[in-house]
Amino acid sequence: MNALLEIKDLKKYFKTSRGLLHAVDGINFAIERGNTLGVVGESGCGKSTLGRLIVHLLEPTGGKIFFEGRDYTNLSHQALLESRREMQMIFQDPFSSLNPRMTVKDTILEPMSIHGMFGGDQSEQTRHVGNIMDAVGLAGNLANSYPHELDGGRRQRIGIARALALEPKFIVCDEPVSALDVSIQAQILNLMQDIQSERGLTYIFITHDLSVVKHISNDICVMYLGNMVEKCPAKEIFKTNYHPYTRALLSAIPIAKTGVKRERILLKGEISSPIEPKPGCRFAPRCIDAKRDCFETQPDLVEISPRHIVACHLYSNVRAIKK
Amino acid sequence: MKKDTILEIRNLTVDYNSDFGTVHALNSLTLSMSRGESLGFVGETGAGKTTTALEIMGLIPYPAGVTKSGEILFEGQDLLKMGKSKLRSIRGEKISMIFQDPMTSLNPVMTVGDQIAESFRIHEKTGRAEAAQKAVRILEMVGIPGERYGEYPHQFSGGMKQRVVIAVALSCNPTLLIADEPTTALDVTIQAQVLDLISTLKKERGTSLLLITHDLGVVAEACDSVAIMYAGSVVEYGTLDDIYNRTSHPYTKGLFGSIPDIESDVDRLKPIPGLMPDPRDLPSGCAFAPRCTLSADECTLPGLGLVEIETGHLVKCRKVRA
Amino acid sequence: MSAQDYKTNRKSGFWSDAWKRLRRNNAAMFSLAVLVLLVITAIFADAIAPYSYSVQDYDNLFQPPSAAHPFGTDNFGRDILSRIMHGSRISLLVGFSSIVTAIIVGGILGAVSGYYGNRTDNCIMRAMDILMAIPGMLLAISLAAMLKPGLINLVIAIAIADVPGYSRVVRASVLTIKGQEYIEAAQCIGATDRRIIFRHVLPNCMAPIIVQATLGMAGAILSASALSFLGLGIQPPTPEWGSMLASARQYIREYWHMTAFPGLAIVITIFALNILGDGLRDALDPRLRR
Fold first, then answer.
1. Is the peptide bond before A285 cis (omega within 30 degrees of 0)?
2. Whether complex ipTM tops 0.95
């Protein structure tokens, strides 16, 4: 296995006036070079925090991040700057992720001038801006436009171009298509797939939309309140799924077809608070299959079939793989 | 036209005057809805979905929005020609609206119970105590315990707030409920709960529903018929079956091709090329022609209208014939 | 070029859009014209003023407005019009420089406070709260009394009283901007804090600062006049609108023109600045864009 990125027991707690908020609570996974890991979950599950931890926008409370086998957790100032060339991020909101006072060209150029790419040669850098704009499908005559003159789809292309400017190996995509209309969303998804295969990029694709994540990912990780509840190859998730939350999530997705009769698992209540969570399975209060065990101990991850792992007491008879 | 038509919009044209030219928001929009029907009103940003809803409610911002022509017949009466006070009594009593963002449509300094009771007191002229009783009943109907009558909106979660908004909208038993992206701000599992609630209540009370959304999945779950909007007018209209299984307009086909399907494995999506036309400068003839794979010279000619290609299935395209 | 590209061919930017909107606001444009006229008067006062501001003419004391002296003369026979023209220098200079000083100090304090947050924020903002707890005018009076009367000290007195206001405005907009994703994006590409503050944060909070500055300048001119009126600002014989009012005060019953014209000059300037400030707020408000 050629893991590009591996995270071990990654944790992030935030201090709030009502106690510690467990945003990300012990996540483990590895991503192979050239693959896409989809992270899916509802609001408040910690998926965005996870992405920000990986690109060092936030410092973890605990756990380790390994990139190409090297420990990337507590980087010095210089090492952090170097790491920016390896991993980049694409943001959700095409409106607020671009500085309204900077032109398209300036936005894409800025990372190159910060890192002094091409030995600081400005004309080389400008040429590179042209190449990248070309690669993401932005017409050259837009170079001097401001973001507010462009529509959401083009703005998101600028965000992608900025992430590509440093020629990273790895990109965290935080809901990159959620704010876009469906027809534009499809264009951007295709673009991201093209760029990935051309440049051999590795993605973490964070979203709340299971259909999108299944479309673009090799593996899917389902998160619930800071925990990973199930991880499996993307192609399996619709047919073979184990965790009651994954099932509820799947059954709740409206499908654009007529005559689809599905048994809908309506969850009780709403997501509970991630502040000072009670022991036991985080999903237990809403779970239709919850037993007494579920409220007392947190379930371990078990490997049900190759590469398919679940954290649920319903499957505790299967051999535990961790701890 | 259909027998028991509750809402009929004819040739509605609305412009917005902006700093950078006139925005043609609606371009002779024609639509009709029968009593008890759920109509899905589907389109992308800028297609004119919300403008249509605001027109029906008489809430178009003044003076930017200008209604150029057309009529909106509600139970046979033209809402656009109606006096202010009459319109106000129809709005709220017969037509209610649910907005996308539950946070902004509730008054933050009034308890949720009082907000519902207020609408009984205004429209049904009920006394304080009776209105409060009715409010508790309707709260329980949308799945909120009556004890929470005295709580303020910020004490509710997003899904619960949207339930309150639905309760307010349904408090006066409207004949027509307009829901503008009611579940877009909610998580999927909560969306499922709210959609179930809307369908159940609709069935119980026989309310007609105009569901505005960009999500073809939501429409498939909650509606009987569908109107697809593009650049300010309806390009395809029909029953759920017509639209989903006998998709005819190239734009509608493009929309379906853009959605990743969770049930099957498709490696590549087939998006619609290009972008929405600038609503200040719409192409002549068919507005979709510049993005359309079927477009031909005839598509730029004016005078394009909806054509019935089979019973009840209308399409606005010269390339599609019965 | 298709219809969709039309937007991008338009020469535009934030400032040119704002200017376009401002130009349609007649009241604001009129105020701007008045202010430009005032600035020109101030710059070329020596050349265009009909008399010297200090030459006393004991044959023409307390002259009412006439063709020779359109605004009349004062108790020393000096031409009031000329004195108002020269006085505009002091008023505009004090107004402008105290606001610029206040913006620079307040802006940096506010930006640092908002960007770093936590303890830094707490220290700076509590200090500002203490300053704010003292009425601005009282603070300026005590500062002006403590320092020696004079132009620079007047500017300092007024500027210090204005600093908390600006630091709050800047801090609030920095806090809003800090939550935007483009700040995270800048961190992601490795931008330093300094670069983020100066390239990404401050340019985006210029709009509220400009509005506040225009409105604040009116207040500063008023404060300068008030301090001079109290004898704590500009000293005679240098003409200043407030000190002109002060010296005319004792003759107000007999010679109305001595107080009326300097007073009118203050009112018109303040009024123009306020109208322009309101116009700028409308023109720069992003919610009104499009």
1. no
2. no
